[in-house]
Structures are given as structure tokens and as C-alpha cells.
Amino acid sequence: MNKFVVFLSIWMIFSCEDVIVKNIESEEIGLQGPPADLNTSAKSLSFSWNELDGASNYQLLVVSPDIKAPVNFLLDTILTDTKFDFQIAVGKYEWCVRGLNSGYKTDYSCRSVVVN
After folding, report:
1. Which structural domain range is residue 79 located in?
2. How do 31-33 and 44-49 pair as beta strands?
3. Which end of the chain has fewer CB atoms within 10 angstroms, the N or the C?
4. Among residues 65, 72, 52, which one has the least CA distance to residue 110?
């Protein structure tokens, strides 16, 4: 009986992370930059957003022309950081970020950008 209690105690200690995962579905990612509706000639953009408590990763999308009717997916990546530098060609784009953890994900927060 004692072996079972010890095993159960060890299992509970090491599996707590699997049981306690913050529900972030109703949270929103705060975008920092580039600013909304940016019109720029810069070919290198720095995408950044606020850290979200409970998110272990972030999914960054860059699509053209927008997320509702994407024609091209330029970038779809999972990051642990809250900043990503990206070289981009001339065109109209929308960039979107959502927070992720092992059990939940937020909705995307998006902004548009035009590169001339």
C-alpha cells in the first residue's frame, strides 16, 4: 500500500502542469507595432506585441491581402518571444498574432500594413 501512495504522490507532483493550465481564450493580444494601417517603404518590419500571462507561445501570421480572404501566407510561425523581424516585399498585408498554451488559444489580433 505504501508503494502505491508514494507513486500517486510523485505522479501528482509531476503532472500538476497538465492539470492547471490557464484558460486564455477570452484574453486579447495587445499589438505594439507596426502601427495600424501603416503605409511604408521599409522592406524590413519588426512585429511586436505584449506578453500575455498564461501564454507559452505565440502564433504569428503574415498574409496577403488580409486574414478574411488570404491569397498568400507569407509567414506562419510559432514563437516564444514577443518580437519578430521579417523582410517583406511590396504589397498589402495583414499581420496577426494569437496566444497559445497547452490547452487554449486566443483569437487573433490583427493589423494591416502596406509596403510601397
Report:
1. 23-115
2. antiparallel
3. N
4. 65
